[in-house]
Design goal:
Blueprint (H helix, E strand, L loop, with lengths): L7 E7 L3 E10 L5 E7 L6 E3 L5 E6 L12 E10 L9 E11 L2 E13 L3 E3 L6 E5 L4 E10 L5 E7 L5 E4 L3 E4 L3 E11 L7 E10 L5 E10 L3 H6 L36 E3 L3 E7 L5 E9 L5 E8 L4 E5 L2 E3 L1 E6 L4 E8 L5 E11 L3 E2 L2 E2 L2 E9 L9 E5 L2 E8 L4 E6 L1
Parallel strand pairs: 1-8, 10-17, 19-29
Antiparallel strand pairs: 2-6, 3-5, 3-7, 4-6, 7-8, 9-11, 11-15, 12-14, 12-16, 13-15, 16-17, 18-20, 20-25, 21-24, 21-26, 22-23, 22-25, 26-29, 27-28, 30-31, 31-32
Length: about 400
């Protein structure tokens, strides 16, 4: 017995995948039957559960009275694996399964599979996918997917559990060959969620039993609607406003008594300038800065790298030019700055810190930290230096009667 009644057909299967189908043999007699199943060459893709090409077993006979069509059944699973296989166009692989009783051939079961490419492509530049919301709110975002293969791509989606809320999406999807697919993901924020930024992942697995892909997600639980509107995306946008007439415009603006003017910037940094020295082209170097919320209120802080293509913010999702974090009152947070030079020379930029919902004179309240990087390599030579151990050197600077003044350099 087979799935279609005449042969074992695995259908279409992508590269780097595996699956199995059952074959049921029924002994309708009263005597035990010792059988052998052999997969005929070529059989590189096909095997039994233990990886072998031959399986021996015995099916007991029927005991007692037997009705028509009844017997003792034995189920055997036949596996196909396409790992390491590469095909330009869909290709059918065939073999035969020989059913033997001793040296007697009882029958042949045709076995086949159609192998093609079904490769998932995602836009890493659009990650992490941002979910900005208030406690208790539901937000839906879309993930752009593409099947670059020549057969349908079947995917299974898995989202991790979290305490801040709940993600929801379709668990299974099929993308036609050479097609794009818009995959919606919904995040429902808990009513009791803390004001914080957290990283998550969406796992997309090629089925059956194929490669796994991770999509980075970021949830930002914000204090008010203004914060959400102020930092929806890092992409350029076009907005419109009304030009004030000449008689309504004033050269300066005074604060009224009801408008609070911040006296100091709410976020402190342990460094105002970040220098990278002697970083080889094509490599990365990271440095840490510590940011501190000096106020008694929670601060939602936007961080933006500007005026450079060689400096980045290092986050769990990768290297980005824009990120966001929540600073609790009097709380601190370490931020990683990444320098990745593409040419020999000097690079300059700045890290802009922009608290959400904080304005002065109707304008955004922000500060910046200077970034400076020198790309290249150095070779320092010194006379009189003695190597003490690996990467550790000793230089005798001064000698007195009481002790030797020794300076260590790395």
């Amino acid at each position: 017995l087979t799935d279609n009644g005449s042969r074992i057909d695995f259908g279409s299967l992508p590269e780097e995948c595996s699956t199995s189908l059952p074959l049921v043999l029924v002994n309708c007699g009263t005597c035990s039957v010792p059988l052998s199943l052999e997969i005929r060459q070529p059989n590189d893709l096909f095997s039994f559960a233990d990886g072998s090409k031959l399986s021996n077993f015995t099916i007991p006979g029927v005991v007692g009275q037997q009705a028509d069509g009844e017997g003792v059944a034995k189920e055997i699973n036949l596996f196909v694996k396409t790992a390491g296989l590469s095909v330009v166009q869909p290709r059918v692989f065939q073999t035969e399964l020989l059913v033997k009783l001793g040296d007697t051939l009882l029958g042949i079961v045709d076995t086949m599979v159609k192998v093609g490419t079904a490769k998932l492509r995602t836009k890493k530049s659009a990650e992490p996918v941002l979910f900005n919301c208030l406690p208790g709110e539901t937000v839906t975002r879309t993930v752009q997917l593409r099947n670059c293969g020549n057969i349908p791509l079947a995917l299974e989606a898995v989202l991790e559990d979290m305490s801040q809320g709940r993600f929801a999406c379709e668990q299974n999807m099929i993308i036609p060959p050479d097609s794009d697919f818009v995959f919606p993901v919904t995040f429902t924020c808990s009513q009791t969620a803390r004001l914080t930024t957290s990283q998550h992942s969406l796992q997309l697995s090629v089925t059956p039993n194929g490669p796994k892909h991770l999509i980075s997600l970021q949830t930002n639980v914000l204090p008010n609607k203004e914060s959400i509107q102020e930092f929806q995306t890092s992409r350029p946008v076009l907005s419109f406003g009304v030009i004030k007439k000449a008689d309504t415009m004033s050269p300066s603006r005074e604060f009224n008594n009801n408008e609070a003017m911040p006296s100091v910037f709410p976020v402190e940094s342990d460094r105002s300038l970040i220098n990278f020295f002697s970083v080889s082209v094509g490599t990365n170097e990271e440095q840490l800065i510590t940011l501190r919320n000096s106020t008694s209120e929670t601060v939602c802080l936007n961080m933006i790298i500007r005026e450079t293509d060689n400096f980045f913010l290092a986050v769990p999702a990768g290297s980005v030019s824009t990120s966001q974090l929540i600073l609790q009152p009097q709380g601190t947070h370490d931020v990683k700055i990444l320098y990745r030079p593409t040419r020999v020379g000097m690079d300059n930029g700045k890290l802009v810190l922009k608290p959400q919902g904080r304005k002065v004179g109707g304008k955004s309240f922000k500060a910046s930290i200077s970034l400076c990087g020198v790309a290249g390599s150095c070779n320092i030579e010194m006379d009189g230096v003695e190597e003490v151990e690996a990467n550790r050197y000793q230089l005798l600077c001064q000698q007195s009667s009481s002790k030797n003044m020794v300076r260590f350099m790395n």
